């Protein structure tokens, strides 16, 4: 399926884009490395896996857990994802079968990403799904959704060291408390 770029930000050497496939992508133009909210794109650009802290992982069971069938290679024959047995990720039960995946994949936007912006620490994205999201620029870790959000599509966003401002088809919103935030609780 073809997707088009709907928004872009450039802060050398990084290019950040939002697209019609509901994903954001950040690329270092000097190395070609980066991250995205698309599991498929990350798999192509990082075929040997992505090194990430355990806090950025979640255990997801197979779509049909009854048929979760690890092959000799450690890949589920049903869904094609890597299988983890006895994982220690958040909420995992020792011996439980499932897939460890980055939280950003399950927290990706569900509509066209109309606006993106970044600084040295954060990436902020706004989408036609009516949500403004915060990401860690360096790792791509999902930080959180901003509360008090829009009821319609988000068209534009901007932020500084103290707040995020977003505009949508419903109104302009100000989201305070960006300064010094380390996790979603400090944004919300």
Count up the domains: 2
Compressed to H and E, one letter per element, the order equals: EEEEHEEEHEEEEEEEH
Radius of gyration: 17 Å
Rounded to the nearest angstrom, the distance between the terminal CA atoms is 35 Å
For the sheet with most strands, the description reads: 4 strands, antiparallel
- The SS-based structural class is mainly beta
The average pLDDT score comes to 74
Q: Let me know the number of strands.
A: 14
Q: How would you describe the overall organization of this protein?
A:
There is one protein chain. 8% of the residues lie in helices and 38% in strands. The protein has 188 residues and is mainly beta. The chain has helices at 39-45, 103-106, 184-187; strands at 5-11, 14-19, 24-28, 34-36, 57-60, 84-85, 97-102, 113-118, 122-127, 132-136, 142-145, 154-159, 163-168, 172-176. It folds into two domains: 5-37 and 107-187, YVTN repeat-like/Quinoprotein amine dehydrogenase (Methylamine Dehydrogenase, Chain H), CATH 2.130.10.10; 50-104, no CATH class. The protein contains three helices and 14 strands. The strands form four sheets. A four-stranded antiparallel sheet has the order 1-2-3-4, with helices on one face. The chain has a four-stranded antiparallel sheet with strand order 8-9-10-11. A three-stranded antiparallel sheet has the order 5-7-6.
